What does this fold into?
Amino acid sequence: MNRAEALELLKEHVKTDQLLRHSFAVEASMIAYAKKYGENEERWGLLGLLHDIDFEKYPEEHPKHAPELLKGTDLDQEFIDSIVSHGYDAGVPRDLLERKALHAVDQMSSFIVAVALMRPTGLEDLKVKSVKKKIKDKAFAKAVNREELDESMASFGVELADHVDVIVEGLKNHEEFLQKQGYTLF
Ligand SMILES: [Fe+2]
Ligand SMILES: [Fe+2]
It folds into this structure.
C-alpha cells in the first residue's frame, strides 16, 4: 500500500479535520524518527498516518478495531499489531522499536503543533523551553496526560529536548509536503 492509497483508506473512516491533522502530525514524526534511526521511512510514515483509523467509529474500543478496517490490504500482520499496540490494554506489547516510537510521538506530535499555534513564528525556532512551559501549564491541552508523555519517552529511550528537536524538524518538513497536496498540519 502506498501513501496515496493509505490516505484514501484513512479518509473513508476519518471525517474530521482535527483527526486528519493529528494523523499527519504523527506521520511526520514517525518519518523523522525512521530517518534518524535508519528505519523504513515509508513503513513508519504509514504507521503514523493510519494509527487512529478506527478512532472515529469506535472511540471507546480504539484501536482494537483497526485490524478489521485494514483487512484486505497488503499491510503485514506485524504492522497491524504495531497499530494496535499504541492503545492501552489493547493486547499487543510495545516490544518493537516502531511501537515504542509510535507511542512516544502520538500525543507529543499534536502537543507540539498546539504549542506552535500559540507562537507568532509557529514551528520556527521552537525549542524545548516553550514545550516545557506548556507541559507545566496544566490548563493547556488538558487531554494530554503528562505522565504518559514521560513514560512513553522513557520507554523509547529519548530525552525531551532531543524529542522536541526531532519532531519539530519532522513537522516542518512534512508541512511543506502536505501543502503541496492541499493539506496542512494547522
Ligand atoms: Fe490512538
Ligand atoms: Fe493518535
